[in-house]
Each structure stands twice: as structure tokens, then as C-alpha cells.
Amino acid sequence: MGELSDYLESDHRRLDALWARAVRDPAGIDEEAYAAFREGLLRHIGIEEKILMPDARARGGEDEALFRRIRIEHSAIALLLVPTPTHELMHEIRGILEQHNPREEGPEGLYGICERLAGDETAMLLERARNAPEVPVAKHYDGPRAHRTAESALRYAEMAEARAREKRT
User: Which of 1, 80, 104, 161 can pair with 5 through a Cys bridge, CB separation 3.0 to 4.6 Å?
Assistant: First the structure.
């Protein structure tokens, strides 16, 4: 694996550490750690959705099933970042990430696919990832349409992905 994988896998570890810091106190969420986790995770997802996956697609190397699953999980994670965080919600996010991160890491994951396809241009892809902007973060929404479980968020994301696929065909 190359520098692109190293960079993004290192970011996974940084986000894992922020997650752990955010939930360390059983009495409540560390708001500073959570804010950094939320902003960092949304930026990380943006790198994958706006840089890596389009580049792989343009090079003719999209693994349709893998990329679809990654997009669904990204959508579900983003939905779970909308409500005010609780320990329960943070553990729902963690559950998705434990399944999700291995889909991206390793030679057969998203990062390995992107490195193989980019070949000599991997450094350019890495530079684009490093220069990706911060993502604007909205205030929390705790209304009736807020998703609070991984199951609910994944089900909603899967339905949205299916509707989008139907529109493309």
C-alpha cells in the first residue's frame, strides 16, 4: 500500500481517537472532541466521495458493489451526525465504522483500488486529498425525522440509493 492509503488510514486512526475521547466520560459527551470528530469525519467522507470515487470511476475502475455500499454507509453516517450526540448514538456510529473502514483499507479496499488505478498519478490524488477543504457543519437537528440508530439510517440510505439508481437508468 502506498502513501494515499497511509494518509487515509492514519486519518481513520485519528478519528477513532477523537471518537474515544468524545465518549470517555460516561456522564456525557466531550463536546470539543465530538466537534473535531464530526468535522473530521465529514471531511474524510468528502475526500472519498468527491475525489477518490470520481477519480476511480473516470479511470474505469469503479467496483460498483463496493462503491455502492460505501456510499450507503457514508449517507448513514452523515444522517447519524445530525442529532445532538449521545453515548448511544456514538456507539451506533462506531458500529457502522467498524464494518465500513475495512471496506476502504487494504489492497482490495477503496484506497488500494484508487492507488492501482492512479498508478504514477497517485501523488496528485494524495495532494488533492490533503488539500481538501473543511466541510461546513450545520447545527444539530433533533426533530422527528432525525435518525438515531444505524439500522434506521442504513435503511433510509439504501432506499435513497435505490431511488437514485432508478433515476439514472
Answer: 1
